[in-house]
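Worked example 4.2. Below are the chains of a multi-component assembly; read each line carefully before continuing.
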Amino acid sequence: MTILTTLLALAPVLTGPVDPSGGLVAIKVGRAETVSHGPIDHAVILVDNGKIVEIGADLPVARGIPVIERPEWVVMPGLVSCYTRLGVESRAGQEFNPEASPTPEIDPRHPDYKEALEAGVTTLGLYPPGTGVPGHAAALRPKGKAIGDMVVDEDAYLKVYFRANSASKKLVRDAWTKVDEYDDKVKKAKEKWEKDNKSKGSDKKEEEKKEGEAKAEEKKDDKKTFVPPEADPKVKPFVQVRDGELGMLVSITQAADWAHWLDAIGERKFDYALRVVMTREIDIYEVTEEIGKRGVRLVMEPQITLVPGTMRQRNLAMEFATAGAKIAFKPRNDTIQDHVAWRRHVGEIVGAGLARDAALRGLTLEPAAVLGLDKQLGSLEKGKTANLLFLSGDPLEPTTNVEAVMLDGEFVFGEVKE
Amino acid sequence: MKFWIDRRSLSVLAFSACMGFALPSFGSPSSAQEGEKKEEEKKKEEKKDEWFAVLNGDVYTGTGAVLRGATVLSKNGVIESIGHDVEVPTEAKTLDAAGLRVYPGLVAINSAGLFGNTGGDFADSVDPYNQRMTLALASGITTAGQSNVALKLKRREIKGVVLRERYLATLSFTNSNPQGKREMNERFERAARYLREYREWEEKKRDNKDLKEPAASGVDSTVRSILEGRVLARFNASNREDLLEIARLAQRFGFRPVIDGCIEGWTVADELGRAGAYAVITPRDRRDKEEQLVRDGGSSIENAAILHRSGVQVCVIPSTTGVDLGGIAGRDILHLPIEAGFAVRGGLTDQAALESITIVPARLLGVSHRVGSLEKGKDCDLIVLDGDVMHYQSLVQYTVVEGKLVYDKSQELFYAHIRPRPSTQLAPEERKDKGEAEEPKEGAEAKPEEAPKEGDETKPDDPPKDPPKDG
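Applying the procedure described above to all two chains together yields the following structure tokens:
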């Protein structure tokens, strides 16, 4: 009922034919893969101002609201490719550059972005190249005239390239030691500040009556007004990671890397996702249980791998999902062809045993979470950005075509008529 | 606290029995506070202690007796006791080795690639999941030297891999480089002189405190540490003349040389024995005698046996130290025990041959206090085989490293199908044929596979029983 009233209330605001460039529109499709709440048959999605206003089955639509009715279509959230170098060159970078961002490299006119969008990829996570700690990844929408139009989030996650060797381990250990040093600095600064503040208070002799209360208040004031010293730009990203303000993506290639990563971070607790490079004979299955137990989010290619030295196949995505890890897929390569074939490749993994809902999450919501955008993107929910992918059938079927793509409430691909 | 420890060392059984009770019931002497402390201690120990027992095997201790049907008990990775009347705590993980032989884990003095693609920084780059490590464990190797570092093959673990670094110092001392030889001689002379002066100074210092310490400048630090016995000098030599020169050098300056190669060692075995040499040999090495010389020369299959008889400690290593799966009875590191078998063929005793791949290389790596034989207080690194360790048909059934089962043949993709282990420990001739009617399995509980299943940690995790997983 509430839905109906909202729709009615909105009705007088906009009437007339479909405006393909945003504005209020209702879309009726045969099926909606919400990703977060399972599929909805006969779904109606109401989009306004770039956001999903309402979604549900067979919702009544008030008269006057333009309606696009496509009962043969299936809608799902736009795909999120959270780890890519699409449209920019691959090159080696610096050893330790945590403050760097790849955004200056972007060429908004690069044809790959348009093609990616037409394949249904509505968000890209562009990572900085190089080894060590090469910098921040940026979240982009693959459309815009200038770099500024494209960037959704400049600080999507901190990339760490980790390998089992003393140089990598030292890099990580040193970074955290510097965070500790910074914490000490903050602590000292705060103590000093408190001291100064207290002496001032005693001069005024105001708090003498209610000492206890006054002290408590004073402490509160401290927190309000105390400004911690600015961290070094090389240290700040790690402080942000520690405080949960910034994600971290750690790239590893083998089980041993994971073991040494655990050794390098020691007892520290912070959130990180793992980028596992699915090489042909990767032995990461040795630590599936351990990784799954921690509920780590993994960024991996939809790829069947082999047990080293054999032709035995393993579906690692399935094994990890079963063990409790969260799977975020990335296209097999950074080429546009692999972005186009991405859904089909994930479909192959589903054919080999991965649960369907995990696969759909792996294309949308999980990579959005890697970018730290899972509150805005990655599923069909009320209030989320209207990045919609309209398909001719099941998203994971190889014969399914992209019919239309909506980016921020705007149709950017496909023939759409009322 | 003392009470507790004493009690346990008296009888392991008592320990396990009192686990369930509160400690004061045993008559804790004094205050409740102390009782609490004990309680904490107990909890800690309960958490910490990991027991592992290999039962009923024929235990070849390596340096001592062969104990038939004995038990090896490990506590936290260290051998607690070996014998026939060992009390095994109830919580211990056990491995039934009835009808099988238990040997100390083998030690390879040289190896390549067993620890992954490391750059020498083993503690930070060891790959404990790499296949070559598994293959080496399957051939019985539990400790190996690489880049002059003694390393433990700890599968799926990266802690405690490095045992000892730089115990061997390689020197060149050969007749083909007379100048280098002369210089080496001088270095030894200078170092010996320095040490002599230093000792004199130390004695005189008691009376005269102002006496100046002898200058250490110009003294080769490597040679000095050799003479002080802190490292072993390693030479690469196979010619009779070189071997004699090394023996003389060693006797003159009083150190024990380690000689790699040593192909013509059998011709000068007495001299090498008198010099207290160690020989690192490959019994299958072949070299022709130089025909123009009248004296003995060339290789001999009896080399190891003759050297051993003369008092040389023999260490055996295959000719290739990496993993190289070419050929039957190959010459790579995986055929370490077979290489020792060739020394036996040349007359070396079984015991000396076992030592040549266990305790002697452990001594050369400077880790004989931890590995190389089954003794109380040493690391519980052992292998369980279905026959003699040096027989080419024997297969390693289990490998245990520091009290943890790291290799179980029946669970390994590459090995499970090779002559599968009988499901019970009956001798092969007592087993029934497949065609015969199956009896209800009484022996099912006695399955050797049962025991290690208790510990998921020690379980290899790609059981071939589960083919759909692998497609």
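Take a moment to check your reading of the output against the notes. Residues 1-17, 206-210 of chain A have pLDDT under 50 and may be disordered. Residues 1-78+378-418 of chain A form a domain with the Urease, subunit C; domain 1 fold (CATH 2.30.40.10).
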